[in-house]
Amino acid sequence: MDRDRLAAMYGVDVTYSPAPDVHVPVPEDTVVAVLAALGVDAGTPRAVRDALAAAEQRRTHRLLPPCTVVRPGRRTLKQALPDLPEGTRLRTETQAGEELADPPRTPGRYVLRATGADGRTAHGDLVVAPTRLSGPPGRTFGFMAQLYSTLSSRSWGRGDLGDLADLAAWSGRALGAGFVQINPLHAGVPGRPTDPSPYRPSSRRFPDPVYLRIEDVPEFAHLPREARGELDALLRKAAALRDGVLLKDALIDRDAVWELKARALELLRSVPLSPGRRAAYADYLAEQGQALDDHATWSALAELHGPDWHSWPAGLRDPRSPQVARARTTHLDRVDFHCWLTWLTDSQLAAAHRAARDAGMPIGIVHDLAVGVHPGGSDAWSMQDVLAGGISIGAPPDAFNSRGQDWGLPPWRPDALAATGYAPYRDLVARMLRHAGGLRMDHVMGLFRLWWVPEGRPPTDGTYVRYDAEAMLGLLALEAYETGAVVIGEDLGTVEPGVREELADRGILGTSVLWFERNYTGEDADRRPLPPSAWREACLATATTHDLPSTAARLTGEHVELRHRLGLLTRPLAEEEADDAAEVAEWIALLGRLGLLPEGAAEEEAVVKAVHRFLARTPARMVGVWLPDGVGDRRPQNLPGTSDEYPNWRLPIADPGGNPLTLEQLAASSRLHALAEEVRRAVARAEAGSPPGPAGSAAGSAAPGARHP
């Protein structure tokens, strides 16, 4: 069928498999709508024939794509250019224009030139990706934390970059932690109320100034006396706000925090920059270029016209329009204010990572890259040419959610990315790695394919659109190689066969969560918990994530009761509780057989330790400890499937009774110290090759994971 051939040319699937050997056809209207979002008319048979002919003509007449990605020992130039016209001659050059005798094998960026048999010439980028990333330097453990929830006695009602620096310095020096993995710090969408989710940001390219530690801005010390009174009043309000958050059952209020910080920053901006800092700011502006100018312009316009650019006056919806150019000039002071905020935040990010490395952390700060951006935000406005309009990404129906999922995020257009030489994607990854020892890729499967849902349709009527994974992974790996960073892929949920193997072959770590690691494959698949020896090495091993119950809640069954209270269960409470208790009992029995529970199973804290001893015994290169697990916090930071029903992304870390704890109290917690010491010693013993103790007898293979509840 012509429409199916056309869809295949653009990477649009016409069927999908929710389970092995099950193939579901994609609605024809969905295929037409998705092709339309890619700029292809497939509405009639004639339009389909014309589109096929045009695509074939482009393929046969193109000498080179804008960007070619190769990988020594894995992907040659010939394999990367299967449609190269007969008789075409290729030569390669360095970025400086020096011609190379042989195709380069050293990772880096080069220039590829082609001369066709008919005399036509073309050139494009040549990216030589590393064959394999080296990964972490030895095995290590670290903490996973949501920074906003980790507030100190100095922060203004939510954790900030000063707290991040302190958390890294303390855990590295006092506990021997090798990394701190945090939530995305992407710029949020302004307005009241603000969307609190860090995974639906306005911009992934720039950080959120709400994380600034105001007192660490150098100009704070030089505020004129006449403005000091107002700043002191703001400091008192900030202290009251912080004290309120630290009361039981209180919530973090991002909007209230930003209202105070924004006014304080307005005062600090009145302080002239010193010559050295002005020069540094000028360098930053020059380095960030058009991208920062766009983000700051959007931020200024959002103050005037609201946070969704679709509702702005028509002339302002195009970032390259004359009206926007005039607005930049008219509102230059506000544009510069937002540029300055971004510079300050970038500077404090750099300081936090330096603190981590100075504390002896071999990795340091691991940042998190969300899978997409808010459709009304800064990136969606400034990158309309490479994001698909009228489309949202999500997940297809599966065993965990029969209705599928719509995440409300516009996807990259694979054709537009390729046409730019993947410049926006390369720029994004490079920005994320500016001040990082590692990068977690949320929903890393999106580098291979994404579930596209046309606007106005349910998630069940979506389809997969495929990306050039060789290019996406190669460019990601090159940026990580050049900065020495670790890359962790969040590969939980519906994962296409071969994806985990491809990531491992490239030295990109996966994510293995204890409760999902069961025997799912083979003739003897029986869903028994996997013993530590059966876990994969190339992963970050954890007991939980920000989307799952804490370990204490899992062990006590409190997470089932919570879901019952909110009406989220699909079966009777008694059935859910019985299955959950049986699952926990299986794991506790395995911990006992392995000799990891010498204290016995009566005490919750002892089982939490045993769970982490288990993680340390696996071959995983990185072991992550969910920071709330260290103090017995019962509450999930995010409960998928809820919005107003549960205070997602707004809870400070708390003790088992729900009493919020400051960073200082965390650092003084004997329970947290004891858990960290157990993990540190166990990882060190395993790294040194000490006998692990009883091995257990169960066998199996790595579980495919499960979509977050």
Helix content: 25-40%
Instruction: Please count the helical segments.
Output: 21
CATH-assigned fold name of one domain: TIM Barrel
- Mean pLDDT, to the nearest integer, reads 93
Could you please describe the fold and organization of this structure?
- The two termini are 38 Å apart.
- This protein is an alpha/beta fold.
- The longest helix has 31 residues, at 275-305.
- The protein has an eight-stranded parallel sheet with strand order 18-15-12-9-8-21-20-19. Strands 3-7-6-4-5 form a five-stranded mixed sheet. It has a four-stranded antiparallel sheet with strand order 14-13-16-17.
- It contains 21 helices and 21 strands.
- It has a domain at 140-146 and 174-201 and 346-688: TIM Barrel (Alpha-Beta Barrel), CATH 3.20.20.80.
- One of its GO terms (molecular function) is 4-alpha-glucanotransferase activity.
- It catalyses: Transfers a segment of a (1->4)-alpha-D-glucan to a new position in an acceptor, which may be glucose or a (1->4)-alpha-D-glucan.
